[in-house]
Amino acid sequence: MIRNDIQYKIGNAPLAEVAVQAMSIINKMQDKPGNTGVQVLAAASVFVLLCERFGIDEKELFSLTQRSIRHSDVYIGKQQLDVVRSYLKEELR
Q1: Contacts by residues 82-85 (CB-CB < 8 Å, ≥ 24 positions apart)
Q2: pTM here?
Q3: Who contacts 19 (Cβ-Cβ below 8 Å, separation ≥6)?
Q4: What is residue 12's three-state secondary structure?
Q5: Residue of 19, 28, 4 lying closest to 69 (CA atoms)
Q6: First-last CA distance in the chain
Q7: Rounded CA gap, 57 and 52, in Å?
Q8: 30 with 36: CB under 8 angstroms?
Q9: How confident is the model at residue 29, as a pLDDT?
Q10: Looking at residue 54, what is its pLDDT?
């Protein structure tokens, strides 16, 4: 279960800012191109370690993240998240 204070912060995180941070992470992942397995496992490891650090159930946070992306509003982050999706598709192979 996600603590109320953390859930509140996650639920109210501006998706446009989330997209900017996501792009930052992707850019850093490109420092070691060529091994997609390392890139994916590194990102997943950070996710798991963040959950551990904040005492969040991984499945619950994953579900919350999926809902946030799926229900993002056109004016509040959807376009930025679409840019992140396209960038991932083109830049990480």
Answers
A1: 83/19, 83/23, 84/19, 84/22, 84/23, 84/26
A2: 0.75
A3: 77, 80, 81, 83, 84
A4: coil
A5: 19
A6: 34
A7: 8
A8: no
A9: 80
A10: 87
Instruction: Encode pLDDT of 68-83 as tens digits.
Output: 777 766 556 677 888 8
**DSSP-assigned letter for residue 77:** B
What phi, psi does 38 have (nearest 5°)?
Answer: -65, -45
- What is the reported pLDDT for 76? 60
Q: What values do phi and psi take at 53, rounded to 5?
A: -60, -40
Distance CA 32, CA 70 (A): 30
What's the average pLDDT block by block, 10 residues per block, for the chain (93 residues)? 75 84 86 79 92 90 82 68 84 72
Backbone angles phi, psi at 73, to 5 degrees: -85, 145
